[in-house]
Amino acid sequence: MEFFRIHKTIPFMRHALVLNIISFATFALAVFFLLHRGLHLSVEFTGGTVMEVAYQQSADIGKVREAIGKLGYPDVQVQSYGTSRDVQIRLPAQKGMSSDQQSAQVMQALKSVDPSATQRGLEVVGPQVGEELTTNGLKALGMVVVGIMIYLAVRFEWKFAVATVLANLHDVVIILGFFAFFQWEFSLAVLAAVLAVLGYSVNESVVIFDRVRENFRRYRKMSTVGIIDNAITSTISRTIITHGSTQLVVLSMFFFGGPTLHYFALALTIGICFGIYSSCFVAAAIAMWLGIKREDLIKGTPVKRDGDSEDDPNAGAVV
Amino acid sequence: MNRYPVWKYAIIVIVLLVGLIYSLPNFFGEAPAVQVSAAKSTVKVDAATQGRVEEALKTAGLTPDLLTLEGGSLRARFGTPDEQLKARDVLQRTLVPDPSDPPYVVALNLVSRSPAWLTSLHAFPMYLGLDLRGGVDFLLQVDMKGAIDKKAESFAGDLRTTFRDKSIRGTSVNRNGQTIEVSFRDAAALQTAKQLIQDQFPDLATTEAQDGNNWRLTATIKPEAARRLQDAALKQNITTLHNRINELGVAEPVIQQQGLDRIVVQLPGVQDTAKAKDILGRTATLEMRLVDESAEGRAAELSGGPVPFGSEKFFERNGRPVIVKKQVLVTGESLTDAQPGFDQQSNQPKVDLTMDAKGGRIMRDVSRENYKKRMAMLIFEKGKGEVLTAPSINGELGNRFQISGSMTVSEAADLALLLRAGSLAAPMEIIQERTIGPSLGADNIEKGFKSVMYGFLAIMVFMCAYYALFGLFSSIALAVNLMLLVAILSMLQATLTLPGIAAMALAIGVAIDSNVLINERVREELRNGASAQAAIHAGYDRAWGTILDSNVTTLIAGIALLAFGSGPVRGFAVVHCIGIVTSMFSAVFFSRGLVNFWYGNKKKLKSVSIGTVWRPKTDGTAVADGK
């Protein structure tokens, strides 16, 4: 089987400007939603109580909400969870009441409406745990960014490191933007997914930059734009097949993994889609605008061959 | 060109074998078992207990498949739940004669069904996290500031007594937070006191100051001492929790330190959170009382006469009665430390006790008045007291004294532990709790495994269809990757959680990247007209650099997750990181081994089965080269 029959190098960079403007607009939009709506943080971050209650028949969410509302909770979220018979209830932390009392009270109220209600799970998180998670999450993000930049700067060159990290942060912010826009629950698992995407999406940029470096060695007279276009073209089949395969697994998690893995898989899906796009257009284009050239990648004096002259017009092409 | 030397194949075979052996126990499932553990801190489950259990089961005509003694609990595995229940009843009757005061907990449990030869190779299945098996999970925060404040307070008291004893006049000792401030009337007193602190309180650091006619000495707990203190406090709290949780009869509780000042408690199978909390928070207390040495007391102790008025009868661990007075001299509150050690003169094991100033004063008075008499140390659990030891007083005691006598080294260590475990070193509070019902756990595990399986199958089908034989090689490499991942996790005895399963699924997706890179590269080489063998060689060679780069960057992200993540994120990160490492082995080294094995010996290899290699014709019209 063969999906990609590409005759010529595709001029990806010709559209770079337009696409980057679109990228920037999406990015700005994501930031706007993040600031405007904020993330719908899970109980792990905010502190509070989450109960999972199972019913024998499909649960009537309205009734559940009403029953709990009578207990005097001003802001209760009730949503179905997994199947129609399972309900998830989130209660904000209440002063002067222990979590047991809270859950016992709620269960009693629910049982008086429908005796078949059984508690399947309970999670209580104190507020200080949440604060720590947030700082640790940010620390992890920072460490990933710095670590990747150092590695890439050593293996390639600082321009590539900057381009890759910018492209990746672009992915991360857009994932967060999606979560903010749709108000999907941002849990620890989603945070893990976001950080995994960061590592994963760097792959893309690295594969392309690896090819750029190789092309610089091989095609000594090609312009930088040509080299980047060629690198993306010759790796595009791998890019799409790899991501397709990963996406297969992620979809399997999305459909079969149950509600707990739902948002995890969703974050990965967005990350994968934008990962392809950003490494092809954002990372490569930023690298191009930062002015990568042959000398950045090929250290030492190049071996002179016949036909190579010192004043090769393409040698240090800056676009 | 494409041949592996024999040693490389040997490595592959060895790794595969080891991987197989260690991943195997995960597939046997679990069998019903009965677990015996100690219900009290004074009871130990050891080889003698094992003998009793064996004996009891034999008389009842039951033979367990496997009987293991591990980490202070005994487990007997049975073939059917019926036998399990019978065995439980038998053991309950033999080991727990008095249900109101049980020395042992006999609980039902599940134990891996893996055969004995695997267990003897230390191949155990992965431990399932609570989200997969159901149970309660607590995160406890230890109040370290409280512990240090308490210690500073006890130091302040000690200093007060020491200064009085050494007749350093005109001092006043005050605790201010975690520092102790002492003021003096003259400089000479300050110098003497400073010397005294240096000699007798190695854990304190002092700074002096003078304003006007007032000399001040500020003593602080040295940072390393504070660290040691925190560490000891945490350890002691963990020990105490162990003792308390034992009585819940939980099959395999997990009590672990997390970070510097937190303790994770996981109780699989427990659904009653309220009871669990009640027991976690309950205190055992330690009391020191004098032994009733009167004629009546002696008689009661030796021949079982009536217990004299004002005294009580308690039993030692070995069942010997001790008659002690009702008056409590000192409680565990005053005991600040208990450490096992060796008496330098007699070279016998001993336990060193340290009391706070108040306790020390009482001990001094009591010991002076009751020279050569016995003093009992009692531990109260569940409202029932037991005599830990009742040594005789051989001299005047201060705030530091020792218990020695006919003890073995391990007995001394146990005694020290029990004395320390009597109470919590620092207050704790529950800051996070989770309950997962057993049905939710079963759901989670089923869904998790399904998603891994379907994802894996989908990729396998696709790879085989797209890359033909090379796709099959990649699929085999992927399966090996999964097996190695499971094997390593089992070897580490990691706890598998739902995020861990998610990471496994993701690892499959990421691992395939390396294979795709290689296969695409081989195709590309073929497209450019390389010979079959050269294409394979160049494909693997050139892809290697890229694979290394991309995996290292992914690994960086994984390590960051590991460093800063907690709980579920950590579980994810561990599997993620190991998955990256195993994928390097399976995708590069192992799959190359397969390819070399298949193609390496064919000298005149015409074509490679790697799916369609399409070549654009120079005139622009494309022609598919049907392999």
Q: Judging by the overall fold, what is the CATH architecture of the largest domain in chain B?
A: Up-down Bundle
Figure out the total of helices of chain B: 16
Molecular shape of chain B: elongated
Main interface pair? A-B, 77 and 79 residues
Q: What topology, given as strand order, has the largest sheet of chain B?
A: 2-3-1-4
Count of individual helical segments of chain A: 10
* Helicity of chain B, as a percent range: 40-55%
CATH topology value of the largest domain in chain A: Multidrug efflux transporter AcrB transmembrane fold
| Contiguous uncertain segments of 5+ residues of chain A | 301-319
The secondary structure category of chain A is alpha+beta
Distance between the termini of chain B: 22 Å
Low-confidence stretches of chain B: 619-627
Average pLDDT across residues of chain B? 83
Main CATH class of the largest domain in chain B: Mainly Alpha
Q: For the record, what CATH class of the largest domain in chain A applies?
A: Mainly Alpha
The total strand number of chain B stands at: 25
Structural class of chain B: alpha+beta
Give a verbal description of the structure.
The complex is a heterodimer of chains A (319) and B (627). In chain A, the strands form two sheets. Chain A has a four-stranded antiparallel beta sheet with strand order 3-4-2-5. In chain A, strands 1-6 form a two-stranded parallel ribbon. The longest helix of chain A has 33 residues, at 224-256. In chain A, α6 (158-182) packs antiparallel against α9. Chain A has 319 residues and is α+β, with helices and mostly antiparallel strands. Residues 301-319 of chain A have low confidence and may be disordered. Chain A is elongated and about 80 Å long. In chain A, a hairpin with a 1-residue loop joins β3 (77-81) and β4. Chain A contains ten helices and six strands; from the N terminus they run αβαβαββαβααβαααα. Chain A has two domains: 12-39 and 129-296, Up-down Bundle (Multidrug efflux transporter AcrB transmembrane fold), CATH 1.20.1640.10; 48-125, Alpha-Beta Plaits (2-Layer Sandwich). Chain B is an alpha+beta fold. Chain B folds into four domains: 6-23 and 438-600, Multidrug efflux transporter AcrB transmembrane fold; 31-113, Alpha-Beta Plaits (2-Layer Sandwich), CATH 3.30.70; 145-225, Gyrase A, domain 2 (2-Layer Sandwich), CATH 3.30.1360; 284-418, Gyrase A, domain 2 (2-Layer Sandwich). In chain B, the strands form eight sheets. Chain B has a four-stranded antiparallel beta sheet, covered by helices on one side. In chain B, strands 11-12-6-22 form a four-stranded antiparallel beta sheet. In chain B, strands 7-8-10-9 form a four-stranded antiparallel beta sheet. In chain B, a hairpin with a 6-residue loop joins β17 (335-342) and β18. The longest helix of chain B has 54 residues, at 438-491. Chain B is elongated, with a radius of gyration of 34 Å. Residues 619-627 of chain B have low confidence and may be disordered. β5 (118-125) of chain A pairs antiparallel with β22 (428-436) of chain B. Chain B: One of its GO terms (cellular component) is plasma membrane. Chain B: This is Protein translocase subunit SecD. Chain B: Forms a complex with SecF. Part of the essential Sec protein translocation apparatus which comprises SecA, SecYEG and auxiliary proteins SecDF-YajC and YidC.
